[in-house]
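Blackboard transcription, Thursday session:
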Amino acid sequence: MTRKHKRLAVISSGMGFLALAAALTFYALGQQTSYFYMPVDLLTQPAVAGDRIRLGGLVEKGSIVRGEGTRVRFAVTDHEHTVTVVYDRILPDLFREEQGVVVEGAFGEEGVLLADTVLAKHDEAYMPREVADSLKERGVWQEE
Amino acid sequence: MSIELGHFALVLTLALALVQTVVPFVGARIGSLSLMRVGEPAAITGLALLAAAFAALMLAYVQSDFSVANVWENSHSAKPLLFKITGTWGNHEGSMLLWVLILSFFGALVAAFGRNLPPTLKANVLAVQGLIASAFLLFILLTSNPFARLQPAPIEGRDLNPILQDIGLAIHPPLLYLGYVGFSISFSFAAAALIDGRVDAAWARWVRPWTLAAWAFLTGGIAMGSYWAYYELGWGGFWFWDPVENASFMPWLAGTALLHSAIVMEKRSALKIWTVLLAILTFSLSLLGTFLVRSGVLTSVHAFASDPTRGVFILAILVFFIGGALALFAFRAAALAPGGLFHPISREGALVLNNLLLTTATATVLVGTLYPLVLEAVTGEKISVGAPFFNATFVPLFLPLLAAVPFGPVLAWKRGDLMGAAQRLHFAFAAAVISALLAFFLIDRSSAFAALGIGLGLWLILGAATDLALKSGVGKVEPAAAFSRFRGLPLSVFGTALAHAGLGLTTLGVVSVTTLQTERILTMQPGQTAEIGGYTLRFEGLQPFTGPNYTEDRAHFVLTRADSVRLGEIISSKRLYTARGMPTTEAGIRTIGLSQLYVSIGDSTNDGGLVVHMWWKPLVTLIWIGALVMMAGGGISLFDRRLRVGAPTRRKAALAAASEEAS
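(Written on the board underneath:)
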């Protein structure tokens, strides 16, 4: 084999691997992604039972029902529409009323989302409003 | 006062970094040795100034000086001393300062120990280092000043995010940055070589120790981060394919490829252009990682809060360095002399295969990480790409790579013999296949993947051992002679074997946990027992406890073995950090052999019970032990005489290569 042939062999096998990787990637992107919805989106395009989705919103005040064994029931809202979620595991530490949350799962019967993952905000810069305002007046507070 | 001095030192470092960029570069252009030499004192003084700035910030943390905005935002007077110190880099500003400190540490090392480097190469390397440092110092001073004061000073700080109040913060970021930023040296060497228009085997010999050191640190950093997330978050997972994790994993994959292609370049002076490109890409991925983590474009379990101006700034740095280096590459690569020839079945060929698989695997991780961002920017559609995506793309590419690893070291350079290599490995192969079959029939018949993975892990470990045995001539010469040959093997041979065996250990751990772990979620009343993994846990009850800056409810569990031998207590708790009012879960973990029992607790139920999530994780510790073994392998290689930083001159290197060829 000449130098040219060898280079060609290396380049074509490289292309082969890239093609394989691209094929795997397209396949996986078609199969393995879940779409993100806000509750209001579900009014216009209702999700089919069994479809996996990610739902983001706020945990509605007063909606959390704990203490029924390992099962927790709560509602996710964006103040336009509200979705009831059931979760059968341990909630994340920062899961609270009126906090942002992302739940992942599929709709069961009666429009209840059966979640298998609940993500609450992980890093939280908690600060009372008035403190933040006074800091802004002094010009040391940077918007996040 | 020290804060102002720190700030001043930072500004001074920026000025010095600009000098370090311009003067040696001009010197190298016009061939003035005295101008080129300016880079060395500039790099070393820069390190001293940055160390002083960093010390000033750390002092403010230790003294709880809340007049410093950064300290006020991230510290609390009741915090234990260790976390006051580590809190220095547990926030955006401080961690960027650590970033440039480590950058300048590596630059100073080149300045101090690269005595045998040709002066123009050294001058150009230091100039590129200076340019990177200037960009990031400017970024810190303009958008992320850690030395900003508050007037009037608050009495108490807002405390460090409780998740970060852990020994993990003391180890994980510094190790990770030593890895991430260490690749800047490879990058600077590549850029300098392109500026110079000259790349040869000696160049690879100088770059390899830096790459090896960075790679070993990055391996440790990622493993430490993984273990930290595992025990701290209370979800029992060791890897989430989270974008921020991917951000550190991509440079690791590319760095691993670089490490291997540099060997080919050093020994056979082939793959030159490719190695230079990989050096650029590896650090580019580090920069991309910095951008992803620091800019706030990602919402992730790891990302610090940040603001958009920073994102734009880092993006500009990213575009400048990656674009600049690739443009330089495009203009100059053609001018580099082409490398040597080799047969596809040879050690070079095996290393090319390694590179092809590693870079395509890196590409799939890159796509999975960036695709959701790009899609959202272009169409506004929000999707999430998680573990299933990576399992479907990364894993199929990585499995053949793992299977091919043991062949590499036993193939000959230039023209190898696949059948011969297979024969040499027959014992390792047979043992791996037998254990895979045993695993399939004895442990778990439901999962062929578990058996395959266990076989693969053992194949890697036994393959590495076989390589050592072959190189010391076991079976061919007297045992005593073999032993003395074994002791006389170069350290880099042990390094390779350890790194490959470590990869095997990690594979074993990952496969065993993902396929064989068991978990239970249940409500437990005090006195109730639950069985998992052949052990029995009895819930004793909840007890309140007060720590230095938190209060917690501790759930006590008594652990007994199947033969009712008591193994002691597991304590798992819900903690509340009082300063931020932030709760955390402290998992109870008991290591039994190489496996772990992992207990997390949830809410109390109405009838006085407690929600408990427990996992039996067989061989889980091998994941991190394997990474430590890989890191040790890298470290041992680094002490190989042939790799001593800056030791070989061009002539000696050529001689060594010639003598190796002859042997």
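Lecturer's comment: The radius of gyration of chain B is 27 Å.
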